[in-house]
């Protein structure tokens, strides 16, 4: 007797549904790969601070200082130099004194370091110089707690003359992601410095036997608005200063990447 063999019917998706399935599969694959790469290679903190891409497009940070309870305008704008160096200015870019006060920082050897503050906004012209430069944060952060510490010599210079010297014992930390406002997550970075002055004296705030205690906290955000539309990585908040001198502290929140005047 002949046996009838039943052929199994193949299940075929319509071409449109098959294409949609492939697209969804690829998207989820890309997301998984991106997540894996982020976990493996970490966050590039240089892309937040100073965010050279935005700086090269003539953007600066505009915000307010809330330390006194009454908001006061605050800005940061940057000048890119060679070899990862940049100057950071905190006077409005339209102000006649716009370049009178700056900090010198550099991305080098996988970290951000700070070596000098220059102030010629009044008399005398002052500089605070650290050697070697102190570390503020790593270039790459892998979502785990990170820290570094060390000691640097420090010199206070007025009108090109050293008036005080001492030792800066510093510590840098990436504490992690924190909620800084409802639903807003930022990367929290901290710098603590203890300067023990060992020689000299000046009315600018240094004297042998005196200690300066300094702490700054930075919060890095992935989506600060731009005046030209869209968002970009940036420093969202900086809070801290001299822990012993209330008038030398701040609590600044930046709201916008803004275009430099005349650009």
Architecture overview:
With 263 residues, this protein is mainly β. Helices cover 12% and strands 56% of the residues. It is built from two helices and 15 strands. It has helices at residues 15-41, 52-55; strands spanning 43-44, 59-65, 72-80, 85-89, 101-108, 111-119, 126-138, 140-141, 146-158, 161-181, 184-202, 206-207, 211-225, 231-242, 249-259. It has a twelve-stranded antiparallel barrel with strand order 2-3-4-5-6-7-9-10-11-13-14-15. It has a two-stranded antiparallel ribbon with strand order 1-8. The chain is globular. The model is unreliable at 1-11 and 17-39 (pLDDT under 50).
Brief overview, please?
The chain has 263 residues and is mostly beta strands. Helix content is 12%, strand content 56%.
Terminal CA distance reads 92 Å
**Widest sheet: strand ordering:** 2-3-4-5-6-7-9-10-11-13-14-15
Query: Spans with pLDDT under 50 lasting ≥5 residues?
Result: 1-11, 17-39
What about the largest sheet?
12 strands, antiparallel, barrel
Q: What is the count of DSSP helices, taking H or I runs of 4+ residues?
A: 2
Q: Report Rg.
A: 26 Å
Q: What's the number of extended β-strand segments?
A: 15
Secondary structure: elements and pairs:
Elements: H1 15-41, E1 43-44, H2 52-55, E2 59-65, E3 72-80, E4 85-89, E5 101-108, E6 111-119, E7 126-138, E8 140-141, E9 146-158, E10 161-181, E11 184-202, E12 206-207, E13 211-225, E14 231-242, E15 249-259
Antiparallel strand pairs: 1-8, 2-3, 2-15, 3-4, 4-5, 5-6, 6-7, 7-9, 9-10, 10-11, 11-12, 11-13, 13-14, 14-15
């Amino acid at each position: 007797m002949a046996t009838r063999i039943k052929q199994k019917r193949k299940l075929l998706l319509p071409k449109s549904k098959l294409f949609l399935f492939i697209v969804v599969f690829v998207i989820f694959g890309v997301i998984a790969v991106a997540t894996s790469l982020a976990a493996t290679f970490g966050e590039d903190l240089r892309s937040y601070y100073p965010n050279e891409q935005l700086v090269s497009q003539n953007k600066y940070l505009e915000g307010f200082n809330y330390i006194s309870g009454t908001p006061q305008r605050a800005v940061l704008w940057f000048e890119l130099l060679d070899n990862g160096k940049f100057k950071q200015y905190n006077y409005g870019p339209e102000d006649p004194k716009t370049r009178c006060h700056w900090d010198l920082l550099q991305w080098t050897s996988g970290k951000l370091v700070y070596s000098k503050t220059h102030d010629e906004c009044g008399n005398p012209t002052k500089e605070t110089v650290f050697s070697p430069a102190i570390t503020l944060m790593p270039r790459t952060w892998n979502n785990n707690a990170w820290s570094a510490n060390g000691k640097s010599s420090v010199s206070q210079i007025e009108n090109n003359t050293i008036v005080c010297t001492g030792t800066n014992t510093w510590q840098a930390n990436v504490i992690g992601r924190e909620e800084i406002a409802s639903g807003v997550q930022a990367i929290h970075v901290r710098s603590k410095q203890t300067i023990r002055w060992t020689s000299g004296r000046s009315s600018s705030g240094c004297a042998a036997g005196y200690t300066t205690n300094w702490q700054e906290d930075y919060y890095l955000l992935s989506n600060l608005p731009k005046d030209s539309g869209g968002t970009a990585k940036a420093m969202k908040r900086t809070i801290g200063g001299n822990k012993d001198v209330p008038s030398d502290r701040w609590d600044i929140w930046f709201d916008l990447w803004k275009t430099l005047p005349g650009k």
